Amino acid sequence: MSTQVVVAVVSAVVALVGAVVAGLMTTWSAQRTRRYENLLEAQRRELSKAEQAEVVLSRYRQPLLAAAHNLQSRLYNIVDQAYLTLYLHCGDSDQERYARDYTIYVLAEYLCWAEIIRRDLRFLDLGSEDGNRELVRKLDATHRAIGREKAPRALRLFRGEQRAIGELMMAPTGDPGSARYESLGYVQFCARLDDDLSFARWFQRLRDDIDKVATSDRSDHSRLIALQTGSLI
User: Fold this and answer.
1) What would the 3-class secondary structure string for 96-165 be?
2) Which of 212, 207, 218, 206 is nearest to 80 (CA)?
């Protein structure tokens, strides 16, 4: 074989190897690029998920805190200030109704905001942030305290009943730029108690329970104390 032929063969082999290597490098580079793009997309999805959770939480944080404060204040007045003893049978029908029905309202309002948050966050992963985990833990502890079987029967609601009352209290806002739902106001709540028998039926036992709470001593207020002080949270 002549030198020229050998050189031609070697050149062809080198060119072939170069082409194969170039192809492999192109494939590897493309795969690496896809992996990097997939990683970036996954990170964007996680960021988007966290951002969505924060948007939902920021939207409902203040209403939930206000509802929790209203509930805590009423429970404090009942447990430590003998509010029901003073006003539930004071002879003034307006004050008596307010003592009974506003107590039920603040509990129902809290359950409403908790249900709204649960619905809006159910498809979002809240387990990745410490603050989110703490929120979920406290909400769950409050639900457990309300449904606690070892406490006296008055004002006990099991988890399904809590959600049902929360759902009944939800009112659409009609504003696409804001939260989809909010809680009924106290005036609307009282009107529906008067005019909507199906609605009122869900609250009748709770309204009757207020008399039991009013006539019981502090040792029978373990459920209320747990909710008011956060001792089960």
Assistant:
1) HHHHHHHHHHHHHHHHHHHHHHHHHHCCCCCCCCHHHHHHHHHHHHHHHHHHCCCCCCCCCCCHHHHHHH
2) 218
Tokens 């905001």 sit at which residue?
Answer: 113
DSSP 68-84: HHHHHHHHHHHHHH-HH
23-59 pLDDT tens trace: 545 665 666 666 656 665 655 555 566 676 667 677 7
**What single-letter DSSP state applies at residue 183?**
E
CA distance to 32, 33, 39, per residue, from 18 (Å): 20, 22, 31
Q: Which residues contact 116 (CB under 8 A, 6 or more apart)?
A: 60, 166, 170, 179, 181, 182, 183
Radius of gyration of the chain (CA): 31
Contact criterion met (CB below 8 Å) for 102 and 184: no
Structure tokens at 206: 């709770």
- Alpha carbons 38 and 35: distance in angstroms, whole number: 5
How many C-beta atoms surround the C-beta of residue 77 within 10 A?
A: 17
- Which 3 state secondary structure label does DSSP give 182? strand
pLDDT at 90: 94
**What's the pTM?**
0.73
